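User: Second chain of the day. Same drill as before.
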Amino acid sequence: MTDPNQQFSSQWTPPPPQYGYGYPVVRPTNGLAIAGMVCAIIALPAACFTWGVGGIVLGALGAIFGHVARRKIRQRDEQGGGMALTGVILGWISVALSIAFLVFMILFVIYGETWVTNLENSGGSDWDDALRGMLMGWLPLKTH
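Assistant: Same format as last time:
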C-alpha cells in the first residue's frame, strides 16, 4: 500500500489567489459648489480693485452658486457641501463689504474736498479734531 500522505501531496495545488474588495465608490463633487467657492474667494480682492462692483457681482454669483449647489448636493447625494457653504458665506460677506466700500468711495468723491480742507486746516496735530472736521461734512455729530 502507498503512503496516504504521499498521494495527497503530489496532487495538491494551491488555491487561486483571492481578489480584494475593490475600491469604494466615490461620490462625484458638485461643480456648482466648486464654482461658488472660487467666485466667492475671488470676490474678496475684486471688491478692492474694482471699486466694489466686482465684489458685488462675483460675491452674488458665488453665493447663488453655493445655494443652488447645496440643494443639488442634498438631492443627488454628491460631495462638496463644505465648498458650497464656503461659497455662500464668503459670497455674502463679499457683497456686504463691497457695498460698504462702494458707499465709502461715493461719499469720498462727493465730500473728499471738504475732508481734505478740514484736515489741512486742523494742522494735522490733533487727529480727533481733524476726524470730527472730516465727518462734519456728512454726519451730524454732537460736540462737547
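The two ends are 122 Å apart (CA to CA).

User: Great, on to the next one.
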